[in-house]
Amino acid sequence: MFRAAAPLSRTVPAAADAVAGTVPRLLRAGWHRPADQGGPGAAPRPAVREVHRQIADLYGTRVLSEGFTDSPLRPTPQLAAGALDALGPLAPDEAPQVAVLAYTTPDFEHTTLTASLLQHRLPGEPLCFAVSDQGVLSPFTALRIAVEYARRSDWSRLLLVVVDQSSQPYPGPASGQYAAEHDSAVALLLAWDGGTSPVAGMGQGPAGQVLPALRADLSGAALFAAGTGLAAGPGIPPSAAPRRDAEPGLPCTGVWAALRGARGGRAVLADHDHGLDRLAHCTLELPAGEGGFR
Asked: pLDDT tens across 31-50, in order?
């Protein structure tokens, strides 16, 4: 288990502490969106199918037959590895010190832990773990935790990996905010330059409490990436920042993939989880020029 607030273990010069309103800086990112064509993937092993049946019995549901076995069957580690490939090779001095995986759709195959895969694939020995059970806001929670570790642990680089995995052995939402209709993964390599200064541009909670800060952040943004949860509220007044709406069917990765091809400046990302009735937002500093995704 890991604490969301790492112990403060660094001594930072006063100049670094004086930095106010620091936000994470995007260094580069990769987006992996495999083609849905090509037929079903390799069927799970009999032992895995038996685990699916036992879990279905435990929760009073059923295992899907054709709907599952006819799906792409790409496990979460495979999708995360694709995002790392899209990110490109990392030199030792580019490697993150902490990497966090975020997802809302559980994996159907549990023989490989994705966080362990990340640690194996990345240079050095980064702290790697996963965040889930936060609905579509899991990536926002994961980013806040990663930045907090960087802020308190004398770290300067962090990696956020977000995955949507569409093959599910049990009945789930066929449409709406939680339905994962495509396989997708995003990897964002970020820098933290703020020392121990407070993190700016982030918030999560009931919409009424978070909206004022979100509106204030949007006033200075170059881009607003809006998750599907914002299509039907809570109401956000128009701002000067150009708005990009997330593609439906990508509950976790959609809002982050909306950054693809974005140019420099500050980008505000936000989404509202209707089931949890919580709003989350964050601000990233984008690289100048043709920034964004590979």
From this structure: 999 986 555 666 677 777 77
